[in-house]
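[Help] Beginner question about ligand-bound structures

Sorry if this is basic. My supervisor gave me a protein sequence and a SMILES string for flavin mononucleotide and asked me to "get the holo structure". I don't really know what that means in practice or what format the answer should be in. Inputs are pasted below exactly as I got them.
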Amino acid sequence: MRYLTAGESHGPQLTTIIEGVPAQLELVAEDINVDLARRQGGYGRGRRMQIEKDQVQILSGVRHGKTTGAPIALVVENKDWTHWTKVMGAEPIGEGEEKEVKRKLTRPRPGHADLNGAIKYGHRDMRNVLERSSARETTVRVAAGGVAKKILSQFGIKVGGHVLEIGGVKAENVSYDSVEELQRRSEASQVRCLDEEASVKMIEAIDTAKQDGDSIGGVVEVVIENVPIGLGSHVHYDRKLDAKLAAAVMSINAFKGVEIGIGFEAARLPGSQVHDEILWDEEKGYTRKTNRLGGFEGGMTTGMPIVVRGVMKPIPTLYKPLQSVDIDTKEPFEASIERSDSCAVPAAAVVAEAVVAWEVANALLETFGHDQMKTIQANVKRHQDEARSF
Ligand SMILES: Cc1cc2nc3c(=O)[nH]c(=O)nc-3n(C[C@H](O)[C@H](O)[C@H](O)COP(=O)(O)O)c2cc1C
Ligand SMILES: C=C(O[C@@H]1CC(C(=O)O)=C[C@@H](OP(=O)(O)O)[C@H]1O)C(=O)O
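Answer (accepted):
No worries, everyone starts somewhere. Holo just means with the ligand present. The predicted complex, written as structure tokens, is below.
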């Protein structure tokens, strides 16, 4: 499968076209809307999220609730658009209105894409960069991820995301028995954290950052269970699924690092405390005593849950802005202040689920076929049976 996204933060809509989705998959808007609503939530979001009510329209590739195998076009409206038609150039600007209406951006925000994008594409108004670098685009990445999750669900594969850390507050008690339990407990927390005490402290940390005109980042984790053994491949660098997951997580706005399993901790431990010992029994086939390597060996899935973590830096737009330079006058100025979130880590956990689910669904289809669900399901079943007694 592949997908493209298009759309500006304050344009009329966000669009994605997904190609390669198998036929005969039951798919309705509600399958996707659940995650769109989750992405809008989470403590620390700004006023924009009160304006938007993200709902997907499925415009092609689905008839009578089932995919046809044709490209699927998904659209999510920007409700805020009606306030931005003049700024975005869709309505004429009256005489003398130009300066006020265009909301020209000439003071780049440190940490955002403004300055580099402006120099690269020759934009004296950095709004042209802001509009596309905004994480509003993650709306349709979550929509595409919703389709991927629906595919995975047909094989009993479950995806869950949660928050491990915000602004230096770490979750301690994060053990869970299943991804279903993880999902239920993380949804019950305003910061999508399994540790109730840490949730309270995280909310306090977000409030403090907001009061100080500052922002904070954190760490999210995605877990996927019931994955067949052998997705991805060791035979070529660009077929290693762990590498694809790392790239996918790093592609989320503001993400600065990725770990699989114990990740960086592996540097500090001996091999005997890192590698996962192999077990076999008739019912389950091959399993592991532990899952420190987060479900991967040799760029392939081991059948243990996939565990991927990502680090999100603090939001760059600050109400107490950092020093910048006005690109018109070259004078030092404070960076522009745009309406902004103070912490989007809980929302980003939902985006991380989507991008990871996408890569895993894609790897599954690469291994087991593309055309219709029934054939793919039969192929997966045959593989699972063979792997069990291998
Ligand atoms: C869900 C989400 C919401 C975000 N909200 C904001 C925001 O309100 N203001 C802001 O300046 N950056 C926000 N960001 C981060 C910027 O989009 C990001 O820092 C920017 O695109 C520059 O890219 P980079 O940080 O990956 O280098 C958000 C990111 C995510 C994932
Ligand atoms: C719109 C979303 O996030 C936006 C991401 C974002 C940024 O710079 O990345 C800046 C803000 O945009 P605005 O200035 O319009 O409030 C966020 O609200 C969204 O997540 O749907």
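A couple of things worth pointing out: The chain is about 35% helix and 20% strand. The longest strand covers residues 158-166. Feel free to follow up in the thread.
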